[in-house]
Design goal:
The complex is a heterodimer of chains A (105) and B (304). Chain A has 105 residues and is mostly helical. Chain A has four helices and no strands. The relative contact order of chain A is 0.13. Chain B starts with 18 loop residues before the first helix and ends in an 8-residue tail after the last helix. In chain B, strand 3, helix 5 and strand 4 form a beta-alpha-beta unit. The chains are: A mainly alpha (105), B alpha/beta (304). Chain B: This is BA75_03080T0.
């Protein structure tokens, strides 16, 4: 949020070091979510648990990343988890995973 | 027949048995047989050769058999002994196999590239009119005389674009160091509202110095994305400072020296994989006029 709240920085793209700050904050927050077994932090039912257990990490995450990025990463976490589950299920059924051309995620 | 005494080249086996006695090709058998006969002859006449003419012999009457037999018997420099033949066969076979495999791969890549180019209006790519980070015009004309790799992205991209641009840097370095190939890397923004030339210039400083950043008006960018079949979700009227993400396709577009599209490289390639793919295409590349010549020639079916 802070990154883009100054009028001077509005136009500027995030630099490598800013991206790293954001990613590190994200990883810390997600690590915390892992510890309390929460996948979807956007889900209202988890909200209370997330704020009490991982409030600080979430604040740091939101401070270091743009709002759109925070939303994107939170959604991506849910998506990635679903994907991992589907792959795991498929593996349990002896399915061979065929990589789709040009699509990695 | 009746040739001068010759000692055939013999390879000794570990047992001391001449190799030729173990395995003799037919041609050698005959020669040896004749030698044995001759030997008997020599023995019988106590060292004095008495040439006898067989019926239907091709030796002219009165001719010196010595001179004639020399021609047949002493052709040892052409005659193949077994092991030489085997070695030669193996060598030639390997070379031919290798050559045809390589040519087959090259032809396949050439065909693939040709199908991607399409006939008439290009399937992917085409004219565009954008500006680079120095504010200068950059059109498809600048793609000529070098291979280019085009990537579409935007500077506010959370994780994929920076990843891919880092990969692009690795690819460029590996192409240069491993194959001494230099290609023109181009970054085209899908987010013209925020990505001005200055912003892109600043952004690209984090990546490989060769990368050329392009932007343009909303309509020019939209048209370019459409021509390259890039999924494009940028809203037209965004307010200054608005925070949003742009959904876009993630591909590298490989363009040939005539600015025509050859192939896409997706995210499934790592840097080395992409380098090999690009190298293959560059090796298989044939300029347009030569391609047309090939297609119209008698062996043109090979390219269809």
């Amino acid at each position: 949020m802070a990154l883009f709240s100054f009028s001077k920085q509005e136009e500027k793209a995030p630099t490598r070091s800013q991206r790293k700050l954001c990613w590190d904050a994200r990883d810390e927050f997600f690590q915390c979510l892992d510890n309390i077994n929460v996948i979807n932090s956007l889900d209202g039912r988890n909200k209370k648990k997330v704020t009490t257990e991982c409030g600080n990490e979430e604040k740091s995450f939101e401070r270091n990343c743009a709002v759109s990025w925070v939303k994107y990463f939170k959604e991506k976490r849910v998506f990635d988890e679903k994907k991992a589950q589907i792959l795991k299920e498929a593996e349990g059924q002896d399915a061979a995973v065929i990589p789709l051309l040009g699509i990695r995620k | 027949m009746l040739g001068r005494a010759r000692t055939p080249f013999r390879l000794r086996t570990p047992l001391g048995v001449p190799l030729r006695q173990i395995y003799r090709p037919i041609s050698i058998n005959r020669v040896l047989l004749q030698e044995q006969k001759k030997q008997e002859n020599v023995n019988a006449t106590d060292g004095v050769e008495t040439p006898k003419r067989k019926p239907l012999s091709r030796i002219p009457i009165g001719a010196i058999p010595e001179a004639n037999s020399q021609k047949i018997g002493s052709s040892g420099n052409v005659e193949f002994s077994t092991w030489k033949a085997v070695v030669l066969f193996a060598l030639v076979g390997t070379a031919v196999t290798f050559f045809f495999k390589r040519e087959k791969k090259r032809l396949e890549l050439q065909k693939e590239a040709d199908q991607n180019r399409g006939i008439g209006k290009p399937l992917v790519g085409g004219p565009f009119d954008l500006i680079d980070t120095n504010g200068e015009q950059f059109t498809q004309e600048k793609l000529k005389d070098k291979f280019s790799l085009i990537y579409f992205g935007f500077t506010h991209c959370p994780d994929i674009c920076p990843d891919e641009l880092d990969k692009l840097g690795l690819m460029l370095d590996e192409l240069k160091s491993k194959y001494n190939i230099q290609i023109q890397p181009i970054f085209i923004t899908c987010d013209p509202a925020r990505d001005t030339p200055a912003v892109i210039e600043e952004y690209l400083k984090d990546f490989h110095p060769d990368i050329i950043g392009l932007t343009g008006t909303y309509d020019k960018i939209k048209e370019c994305c459409k021509n390259f079949r890039v999924y494009f979700s940028t809203p037209r009227d965004v307010k200054a400072g608005q925070d949003y993400l742009v959904d876009h396709s993630i591909f590298f577009y490989l363009m040939d020296k005539e600015g025509e599209f050859i192939d896409v490289l997706g995210r499934q390639y790592d840097a080395s994989g992409a380098v090999e793919k690009i190298k293959g295409h560059i090796d298989a590349y044939v300029p347009r006029d030569q391609r047309n010549k090939q297609k119209n020639s008698w062996y043109g079916f090979l390219f269809k």
